[in-house]
Amino acid sequence: MTLWDLSTGDLATVSGIAEDVADNVKLRLVEMGIQKGRDLKCVRRGPFNGPIVLQLGGSVFALEQDIAKKVGIRQ
Question: CATH homologous superfamily for 3-74?
């Protein structure tokens, strides 16, 4: 399951980032707090496959579909 599979209001824990993600993208995800073991919540889904909005602690971030599909989660 990936971040892209979450529905609004769902809670999940990050299980990892795909190996084929570019190093600079991985680094940015980690800087945002998206790393293995981190709990997060799907705040909302953008219309027409728009970005997914996630809350991690006190921060809120939006990720596009192609990146969200590369972050594994467990619920």
Answer: Ferrous iron transport protein A (FeoA) (2.30.30.90)
Within the chain, residue ranges assigned H as helices are: 23-32, 65-68
CA dist., res. 15 & res. 64, Å (int): 19
What would the pLDDT profile of 47-56 be if each residue is shown by its tens digit?
A: 998 999 999 9
Residue 20 CA to residue 46 CA, distance in Å, equals 25
Backbone dihedral angles phi then psi of residue 18, each to the nearest 5 degrees: -55, 145
Residue 47 phi/psi, 5-degree rounding, is: -70, 155
- pTM exceeds 0.85: yes
How many C-alpha atoms does 43 have within 13 Å on its Cβ side? 12
Each domain of the chain, given as residue ranges in start order, spans 3-74
